[in-house]
Amino acid sequence: MDYVSESIEHLGVVAGMYEELGIGELLDDVIEQDLEQRQLSVGQCVKAMVLNGLGLAQRRLYLTADFFKNKPVDLLIGENVEASMITSDALSGTLDDIYSYGASGLYALASSEAVKRLGLKSKVGHDDITSFHVDGNYDNEALEDSQDDARMVRLSRGYSRDHRPDLKQIGLELIVENKAKLPIA
């Protein structure tokens, strides 16, 4: 008899909360998908990306299957799922589907569902804004004149907490639920 050792570490807790909050179920309900064309649902692909990201691997998307090679994938992602099914095509297609749906609206739905499932009665929220700079050559001038998608992230110069007005930056605003500090918008 051959024995195989698989490592689950903290990923079991993360996968369990993902299920308890109903994130995958919500994604699969609101995003149209053709399961005849893909082996994994959108919810399963997002779960794989979350686990990979919180697995402290910092690997490229195409290496996600490698991350799961020594993990109990059927327990973490879903029954009958194998690491080889977590392809870069499946993950990038999922990201395309999320973009098409609208990531901000999808996040609002998911956070609302999480607050409801956790039984949080949010009367007060906390709003905060932060910024972080980006390095590199980004040509936003071409975007300024176009009528392209309003959801496009635009990098610009402005007040810099890093005291680096020469760098372009992105602002991030979050509203968090007061009791659990869960980002809700």
The number of E-state strands comes to: 2
Task: Give me the strand/helix succession.
Answer: HHHHHHHEHE
Helix content: 25-40%
Instruction: Kindly provide the radius of gyration, computed on alpha-carbon positions and rounded to a whole number of angstroms.
Output: 19 Å
Mean pLDDT: 81
Largest sheet: 2 strands, antiparallel
How far is it from the N-terminal to the C-terminal residue, by CA?
Answer: 52 Å
User: Order of strands across the biggest sheet?
Assistant: 1-2
Overall morphology: globular
Number of helices: 8
Structural class of the helices, strands and pairings? alpha+beta
| Beta-strand content bin | 5-15%
Low-confidence stretches: none
Describe this structure as you would to a colleague:
The structure is a single chain. This protein is of the alpha+beta class. It is 39% helix and 10% strand. The chain contains 8 helices and 2 strands. Strands 1-2 form a two-stranded antiparallel sheet. Helix 2 (23-30) packs antiparallel against helix 3 and helix 3 packs across helix 6. The radius of gyration is 19 Å and the shape is globular. It starts with 10 loop residues before the first helix and ends in an 8-residue tail after the last strand.
SSE arrangement:
Layout: H1 11-20, H2 23-30, H3 42-54, H4 64-67, H5 73-76, H6 88-101, H7 103-117, E1 125-133, H8 141-144, E2 169-177
Antiparallel strand pairs: 1-2
Helix pairs in contact: 1-3, 2-3, 3-6
